[in-house]
Amino acid sequence: MDQRIVLIYKGDLSEIPLLLSVCRICAVLKYQVEVICGYCNFVTKRELSDIGVNVVVLDSNLPRLKNNPTTKLVYWVRFRSFVKSASKNFPQNCIVWLGSGDTAVALYGIKLNNSFVLHLHELYDENTFYRLVLRKISKSATVIVCPEQCRAAIFQVWFKLKETPFTLPNSVYLHPRRKNLVKGSTLIEQVQMLIGGRKVLLYQGHIGSDRSFLEFARAIGAINDKWALIVMGKSHDETLDLLRTGCPNLIYIPHITPPAHLDVTSLATIGIIMYTPSSLNNLFCAPNKIWEYAGYGIPFISNKLPALQNILFEYKCGICVDETKGNILNALNEIECNYVDYSDAATRLFDSVNLQTIVKQIINKCSNN
Fold it and tell me: How far is CA 196 from CA 175, 229, 248, 251, 329, in A?
C-alpha cells in the first residue's frame, strides 16, 4: 500500500507499548512506516526493522540525559530542529502520528503540511502550559486519540472539540495470552523458586508515592504462607522500602523492557492496580497493566477510581475496594473462591478491543481528510 505513516515520539519508543503496537499494526496493514524517536533500544529497533519499519533514532545517549535540566533543554531544541528539517521531505499524502502530548508541545509552531494524529496519553490537568498549547494544536489535528473514554470526553470539553477523540485503549497487540510459555529463563526460574508454590499477587508499573499500595503489602504479609507479593517496575522514591515494612518477604523485580515483562506477568494469580486520587489523570487512569493482566485472564483488585469502576461494572473482572487490610483480604478470598468466573471475565475484557480495527479507522479518517 502506498500510504506512508511517520510516527514521531520525543522519548524512548522502547518503553511505550501502545506506540509499538501502532507500528506493528501499520506494518501488518501494509503501510509504509517510518519512526523518528529520541531513543529506541537495539532489540526493539531490530524487531521493527524485521517487519519493515524504519526507525531513526536521534540520540543514543537520551536515557542518560533525562534527569539533567540543561541537557534536557538542549535535547528539546535538537529534537525540534531535527523534526523540522525532516518534515520538509514528508510527501503530501503522508500521515504524521505525533506520539504524545510532550512530543506535540515540543514541535508546536512547526507547520506540518500533512494530516496528523495527536495522540494524548495523559490529561496534563496539573500542567496549565501544556493544556494551553495542546488546545491550540488540537484545532489543526485531523484525529485526536486518547487511551480512555472519560479522558476523551474531558478533552472534548476542555478543547471545545466538535467530535469526541478516538479511544485507543492501552491494550497489547501481540499478547502471548497463554501462561508459562517461557522455558529456560533464569529470571523466571529464580522467581518461581521464591514463589515456592504460593499464589501470586502482582503489582507492575512505576513504584512511587502516587501509587502506594501499603495496605496490599500488609494484607499479603499476614498470609505470606499462602500468597507471594511480587512488585515489578522502576522504583522512584522510598515507597518500596515502605512496602517492605508491610511485607518483608516481597519479591522485587526491577523494570523489564516491554514486552519481556509479560513473562513475569504470566506468573500472577491476581493483579494490583493502584493510583492515589490526587489528580484527574489518576482518577481517570488508563494503565497498560489492565490489559496485560486481562490478556492472561488475570483478575485485578484496585482502589476506587471512576475509570476502573466503570470497567468492573461492565465486565466483573475484579474488585474495587476501600484500602484496608480487611477489605483486601476479603477481595482476595472472593476472587479465589470464584476464580474461573473472574478469569473468564478478564478474558472477555481483553477480547472486547481490537486494536487493529481502531488503528485502521484512525488512518482511514486521516486519508479521507
Answer: 26, 12, 16, 12, 21
